[in-house]
Sequence to fold (734 residues):
Amino acid sequence: MDSAVQATRDAVEALAGEKYKYGFVTDIEADTAPKGLNEDIVRFISAKKNEPEWLLDWRLKAFRHWLEMPEPQWAKVSFPPLDYQDAYYYSAPKVGKRPESLDEIDPELRKTYEKLGIPLKEQEILAGVAVDAVFDSVSVATTFKKKLEEYGVIFCSISEAIQRCPELIRKYLGSVVPYTDNKHATLNSAVFTDGSFVYVPEGVRCPMELSTYFRINAAKTGQFERTLIIADRGSYVSYLEGCTAPMRDENQLHAAVVELVALDDAEIKYSTVQNWYPGDENGKGGIYNFVTKRGACRGRNSKISWTQVETGSAITWKYPSCILQGDNSVGEFYSIAITNNYQQADTGTKMIHLGRNTRSRIISKGISAGHGAQTYRGLVRIAAKAAGARNHTQCDSLLIGDRSAAHTVPYIETRNRTAMVEHEATTSKINDDQLFYCRQRGIAEEEAVALIVNGFCREVLQQLPMEFAVEAQKLVAISLEGSVG
Amino acid sequence: MLTIENLHVAVDGRSILSGFDLDVGPGEVHAIMGPNGSGKSTLSYVLAGRDGYDVTAGRVQLDGQDLLAMAPEERAAAGLFLAFQYPVEIPGVANATFLRQSLNAVRKARGLDELDAMQFLKSARARMKLLGMTDEMLKRSVNTGFSGGEKKRNEVLQMTLLEPRLAILDETDSGLDVDALRIVADGVNGLRAPDRSFVVITHYQRLLDYIVPDRVHILARGRIVRSGGEDLAREVERTGYADYLAPAA
Fold:
C-alpha cells in the first residue's frame, strides 16, 4: 500500500480510537487514575495534560472550594445522594474492543438510528464501528480545519488550546462561570478532562457551522466537559453541540461547563440537541445531566442566543444564561424540553441585564408525558443601571396523559423603573379535538401526537440550523413514542 | 354503500340516537335535516369514530365493512371523510405539512405510492385554484386564524385531495356568506361521482339549493321520522320542525 495512505490510515485509526469510548471497556489499565477524588487525582489530571502551573492552582482552588460546598437543593428533582468517591475521574483515551460491524450493535439503538434517518456510514461512526467510514469523516474534518485556518478561526479541543493559546485560556477560562459558582461547575473546574475551544478573530464571520461532530478527531469528551467560545469584536459564530442519535455512557454524572464570551458587536449562536440515555421505561438508569452554561455579552451590541432541544437524560439540571453587560446587548433562550416515562427536568435560563437598552427573549416549550416531570425555572434580573431594558418571556407547557407534571417558576427582579418585563405562560393538555381531527384525516394517533407537538415547538425548532431542525423534529416524535394509547 | 341499521347511541348515559336507520347507495346525495339537539352532529361523530359516544345497539357498514370496529384513521383510509362543522386549529403545523401527511397516510393505507413534496404541491395547487384559495393558505398553520369561509374551503380542499368514498358534510353552510357558500358547493358538486356518496347534514334548506340531494330525511327524537325528495327540504323551510318534535304528533 502507498505509504502516504497507510500513514493517514494509521493516524485515523489512532484518532478514531480516542473518540469513542463506546465499547464499554471496564478493565482498569495503567493509564487510568484510581477510583475516588482527592488532590492527587486533580494533580494527576493536570500533569497528564501537561498543564501550566497556574491552571493546576486554579483546579486545586476549585477542588478545595468544592469540598466545602453544599449540593444545590432548590431544583425540583429527586435522586439519591451522589457518591463522588465511587467514580473514576481520569481514564486515558484508549482503543477499546470495538464492534466489527453494525450487527454487533444493540438492535434498539439501530432502530433509533434508522428512525432518525441517519445514513449507514454515520451510524457506523456513531456506534464506533472500526471501518473505513471513519476515514471519510476525518478527511471531511480535515478539509473543514483548513478552511477555518484560512479565516483565523481556532477550533480545537480545550486541551490543545491550553498548549496552543494559553494566554486566551488564562484570560477567559472561569471568567463567565467562576470556579466558585455551584457544586457541579466547581467539580468540573477541578477535574475537567476535555471539551471544545473556539476563538473567532475580530471581524470574522465564521464560514461554517461549527459542530462537535466534526471535531471527531479531537480527543474524546468525557463526563466533565469544558467548553469555551470567544467571539472577538464584530465576529459571528454558530456552534452546534450534541447529536440527535442516542448517546450512552457508563458514567452516570455529567457535569459540563460552557462559557461564551461575546465582545463588541459580536454574535454567538449556540445550539444543543441532547439525547443522552434517559433510563428505561421504569426509570432505571440514565444520565444525570447537571450542566452550567453561561454567556457573557461583554461588548456593546453583542448578542448571545441559546437554543436547546433536551430529550434525553434521566435528570436534566440546566440553565443556559446570558449576562448582558454591554449596552444594547441581546440575550435569547429558546428551549424545548421533553420528559417521558420517569424523566425529570428542571431547566430554564437567567437573563441578567446590566447594560443600558439590553434586551432578552425567552421562549420555553416543555412537553411532559408518562410520569415525566418538569419545571421551567427562569430569572430575569434588571439591575439599577440597566435603563431601557426589555424582556419578553413566553413559557408554554404541554401535558400528555394524566400522570405527567409541569411547573413554571419565574423569578423577576427589576431595579430600574424604565425596564419593561413581560411574562406569558400557558399550560395545556394535548387537545382531543386536534387528535380526532388528525385521525379523521387518516393520521394514526402516535403520528398525530408528534405532529401536534412539533407544531407546539415550532417557534423554537425554527431557531435551529436547517439540517439540525429536520432531525430534531424526528427526535421529538421518537421521544414521545409510547406516550399515548 | 353506507348502511346504518337500528343505531342506538348514548353520551354520558343519555340516549341521543335511538333506532336510526339509513341506506345510502353509490353516487347518491342524502340530506339529513333536523332541529338543534336532534343528534345530527352525534351521527357524524359516531360514523367517524370519535371517543365518548357509546354505541349501545345497531350496525354500520361501509362497502360491507364493519365501520364501528375500525379506528378513526382506518375509517379515513376506507374512504370515510368528515367535513367538520368547526374545523380544528393546529397552531404551528403548516397546512401543507398537515395535508401532505394526511394524504400520504391515506394513500399508504390504500396501497398507493406516497407523494413527494413537489407532486403534492402540484396536486394541491390545482385543486386550490378551483376553490379560490391562494398559496399562502398552504404556509399558514392549519385553520389557525382562518376566517369561517377559509376554514370551510380548507375542509373541501382536503376532501378533494383524499377522494373519499363517502363524505359527510356537517353543517358545512354554517358561518358562510352566499359567495363562499357557492364556492364550497361548487367544490362539492365537482366531486359528485357514480362511486362517491354524500351525507349532507344541515339545519337549513339553503345549502340544498346548491347541493341538490337525491333524498331528504328529517331527524328528530333520535331517529329518522320522515323521508322524501328535495321538496321535503322546502316544506320544512316553510313549516319548521315543530311538528316533528312532539312525540307521536
In short: The first helix of chain B runs from residue 40 to 48.
